[in-house]
Structures are given as structure tokens and as C-alpha cells.
Design a protein that fits this description.
The protein has a single domain, classed as Up-down Bundle (Rhopdopsin 7-helix transmembrane proteins). Helices cover 73% and strands 0% of the residues.
Length: 283
């Protein structure tokens, strides 16, 4: 929340990368609240039963926010690609309107896509012992509980999972391959360090997020790996959003000039919070 306030209030931070970072912070507040509030309630009260509608609601918001984060991380990697590989074109390409279109497209498309899946899931019939061996309503586990024909739902899950994970993941990979190739062509060591500092924080976040997602959803499902899957689910649902502000803050460097520190408490806090983030101005 402090990151969002600072990005909105400090004129020095009104740049595309900090705009995306503010959106990411807002997304992850909602993202973790969907899981943690219900989990903490169960741990404190011992009441672990959830209604079908409550489970579907949790699935809807969690799935939508996770899909939006995939595209938002891809937009941030594209921003870093333009800043490092196309510095002369950066001001004209990464305009305020284009940033708004990228973020709005990420949020709206994700919520619309998950709405279709949740609509079909709500039509399923559940019978027998409806217990989920997980700490939240994970979509694939909920579908397995149904005694209805789930072929259509499973096809939609595969389709939208491919759309919302593979393209942004490939875009992120391509962006960083081009970024690294550009950095290696820089002759001076100082130039290489400065260029890499502008994207190292985001690269760490992307690696942790996609790495844990792949471990959970790509590894074969069996009883031996069930506990491991739940453990790595903690990484991308709780741990990653928790450490993201720390990663971005600790990797922040010289974002604000030192002479600005006397202009007010907000600027002082801003300089401390973003200490080490890398100078995100175009090279």
C-alpha cells in the first residue's frame, strides 16, 4: 500500500515502470487477500467448511488476478526491453495511453476469461465427500470433485491456461534474451551494470513466480508430490507477493537525487523505500 501511495504522490515516480509496479502492488494486495483472509479465519476458528458459492467466488477472483499478473509481468518485461534495447524510441512507444491500454487489457481480459470458466463450473453437480486436500479452492481439485461430465470444463481450463500463461511467458523470455544480448554488447563494465540493474529486480520476480507455477501445474500429479505441490502453492500465492516489495525496494538505487531529500517526509520515505531499485530512465 505504501508503494501505491508513493507512486501516486511523488512526481519523480510518474514513469511507466513505476506505473506498472503500482498496478502490481494493487493486484497482489487483492491476490493474497483472497487466500489469506479465509485461511487465517479457518486457522483461528477451526471452521474449515466453505459454501459452494464461496468456493466458486474464491476461484473466480484468484484465477482472474493470477492471469492478470501473468500479463502485467509481461508488460513490465516489454517496458524494460524498450528502455534498454530501443532507448531512442522509448518515449514515443511507452506513452501514458499505451501503458493504460496494457494494464486495462490485462485486468479486463483476465476477468472476462475466468468468468467463462467459472460459469461452466457453477453448472457442475457435486456429490459424495466434497473435501479438497488444499488450503484454498484450487480449480483443478474442485472440478475433480464433480460427478458430472467435466470434459468441456477441462478443455476450457487448458485453453485459457495456455492463453494466459504461454504467450506472456514467451514474451517475457524473448524480451530478456534480447535485453541480455544488448547488455553483452555494451563495452564498459559500468554500462553493463547500469543496464542490468534496470531489469534485475523484475527478472527475479518473474523467475520465482513462473518457476513455482510450473512446478505445481507441470509436474505429474500423484500422492507423493501432493504435499510438494501444496508447498510450492504457498510460494506463488503467499510468499512471492510478500517478498516482491522487498525485492523491488532493495534492488532500487539512486531513483531520487539526494538534493531532493529536504523537500519533505514523503520524499525521504520514498528514497528509503526505493533504495537500490536501479535507475529506470532510458539509457
Amino acid at each position: 500500500m505504501l508503494i501505491i501511495v508513493l507512486v501516486m504522490a511523488d512526481q519523480h515516480l510518474h514513469t511507466p515502470m513505476y506505473y506498472f509496479l503500482g498496478n502490481l502492488a494493487c493486484l497482489e494486495i487483492c491476490y493474497t487477500s483472497i487466500i489469506l483472509l479465509r485461511l487465517l479465519s479457518s486457522l483461528l476458528t477451526g471452521y474449515r467448511t466453505m459454501s459452494v458459492m464461496g468456493c466458486i467466488t474464491q476461484m473466480y477472483f484468484f484465477g482472474s488476478l493470477a492471469a492478470a499478473e501473468c500479463y502485467l509481468l509481461a508488460a513490465m518485461s516489454y517496458d524494460r526491453y524498450l528502455a534498454i534495447c530501443k532507448p531512442l524510441h522509448y518515449p514515443t512507444c511507452m506513452t501514458g495511453r499505451f501503458c493504460l491500454q496494457l494494464t486495462a487489457g490485462s485486468w479486463i481480459s483476465a476477468f472476462l476469461a475466468i468468468s467463462i470458466i467459472v460459469l461452466f463450473v457453477s453448472q457442475l453437480t457435486f456429490c459424495g465427500t466434497n473435501e479438497i486436500d488444499h488450503f484454498f479452492c484450487e480449480l483443478t481439485l474442485v472440478v475433480k470433485l464433480s460427478c458430472s461430465d467435466t470434459n468441456v470444463v477441462e478443455f476450457l481450463m487448458f485453453l485459457f491456461a495456455s492463453i494466459f500463461t504461454l504467450p506472456p511467458f514467451l514474451l517475457t523470455i524473448i524480451s530478456y534474451v534480447l535485453i541480455i544480448a544488448t547488455i553483452l554488447r555494451i563495452s564498459s563494465v559500468t554500462g553493463k551494470q547500469k543496464a542490468f540493474s534496470t531489469c534485475s529486480s523484475h527478472l527475479i520476480v518473474v523467475t520465482v513466480f513462473y518457476g513455482t507455477l510450473m512446478i505445481v501445474y507441470v509436474l505429474p500429479k500423484n500422492n507423493k508430490l501432493r504435499v510438494l505441490n501444496k508447498l510450492f502453492s504457498v510460494f506463488y500465492t503467499i510468499l512471492t507477493p510478500m517478498v516482491n516489495p522487498l525485492i523491488y525496494s532493495l534492488r532500487n538505487k539512486d531513483t531520487l537525487p539526494m538534493e531532493e531529500l529536504g523537500s519533505g517526509n514523503l520524499t525521504i520515505i520514498s528514497h528509503i523505500l526505493f533504495l537500490g531499485f536501479g535507475d529506470f530512465k532510458e539509457l
